[in-house]
Write a structure and sequence with these properties.
Elements: E1 2-5, H1 11-18, H2 21-25, H3 35-47, E2 54-57, E3 63-65
Antiparallel strand pairs: 1-2, 2-3
Length: about 70
Amino acid sequence: MILRPAKLDDIKIIFDWANDKEMRQNSFDLKSIAWENHVIWYNNKLNQNDSIILIGETEHFEKIGQ
């Protein structure tokens, strides 16, 4: 597995992971995340100097987690 910084084109997979049924069941807030809210949050995170989102990938570049 490799870790790399998230890029703008990772927005959809992170959205899908965040709204995964099991993920929501194990979160503080059980409600699904709206796409519009996710876009705002994601863009803010990518532009913050004190925050980093890492994407885990297999050696074949399959995204497996954040």
